[in-house]
Amino acid sequence: MARAIWRGAISFGMVSIPVKLYTATESKDVAFRQLVAEDLKPLKQLRWSPTLDREVQYEELVKGYEYAKDQYVIIDDEDFEQLPVPSKHTIAITGFVDAREIDPVYYEKAYQLDPDEVGVRPFALLLQAMEQKGLVGIGKLALRQKEHLVVLRPAEGRVMLETLFYPDEVRPFEGIDVSGVQLAEQELQMAFALVDMLHEPFDPTKYHDEYRDALMSMISTKLEGGEVVAGEEQAPAAQTVDLMAALRASIEATQARKAAATPPPAGAGDGQDEAPAAATKRAPRKKKAAAG
Q: What residue spans of 16-95 are helical by DSSP H?
């Protein structure tokens, strides 16, 4: 299992639950090194002091807060440890809220919580209480030189911790507010129909990073000495002029795509084979009736 990045306790009223915190996500970005074009060797990043005119070692560094131009207050590890903040070691749940009341823009990063052996029962109690009440817990956690606002939420038999942005960290919206735009009822009904056709359960396994796949394919081709063939660029989406026409075309395209992806029902092939035979049997009777 991965190494815990924090150890402490969840405070749930008078109940204390010892827990460990783990990162829940990892980036799958394709990494590149910066090379010098002349010799194709990677750059060496130096911690260089312009006043000492030499490279400095990591152990020579200290943290400084710049309170004025070139004026610093030095803070060391002992100073951080002595901060009188309870959330350094305890996540105190101060309230429970409906998760739907939290705008997704506030969510920052996801973590997994795991109880110590002695905390299994109270951890399970907290989990089941949140599940059955349909609520999430709100608290604070001091992590990486910042006190984070956090939400604890139940997730398929475990408790996830999500750090939240504070309100002053969320940029105010400065774009066009379209909430008051008047739309025709027919436009809305067609939009509803399109949404209903595309409505499906969320399955994250259906999605993957196509850009990363294409990039790795290009790298493999270069490694094998092959020629990289440029793909066709998609033209930018045209500006929608006739909204109804665009909706109608979208619905028709979605219907066609779903029909192509749906396998024929069992026995459909047999029915198609029988249809011509039935028509052949009826033909002589039709002819006889005409002669009479």
A: 77-81
Domains and CATH numbers, the chain: 6-25+82-169 (2.40.290.10)
The rounded distance, in Å, linking the Cα atoms of 164 and 110 is 9
DSSP assignment of 156-173, as one string? TTEEEEEEE--GGGSPPP
pLDDT for 156 beyond 80:
yes
Residues 6+ apart with CB under 8 A from 186: 244
Residue position matching structure tokens 């209903």: 196
Query: Residue 291 above 50 pLDDT?
Result: no
Read off the pLDDT of residues 6-20 as tens digits, 9 standing for 90 and up. Answer: 999 999 888 999 999
User: Which two three-digit tokens encode residue 271?
Assistant: 């029915």
- On the question of pLDDT at 276 being above 50, the answer is no
Name the helix (H) or strand (E) containing 147.
strand 147-155
Decide if 162 contacts 155 (C-beta within 8 A): no
DSSP helix/strand/coil, 245: helix
For helices 243-261 and 185-198, the axis angle rounded to 10 degrees is 20
CA distances from residue 104 to 7, 107, 149, 162, 170 in whole angstroms, order as listed:
27, 5, 14, 11, 11
Assess contact for 42 and 35: CB atoms under 8 A. yes
The model's pTM: 0.74
The three-state secondary structure class of 257 is helix
pLDDT tens digits, 161-218:
999 999 999 999 999 999 999 999 999 999 999 999 999 999 999 999 888 988 888 8
Buried b / exposed e over 13-40, threshold 16 CB at 10 Å, is eeeebbbbbeebeeeeeeeeeeeeeeee
> Distances from the Cα of 33 to the Cαs of 28, 37, 40, 42, 269, in angstroms?
16, 12, 10, 6, 57
Residue with tokens 């991965």: 2
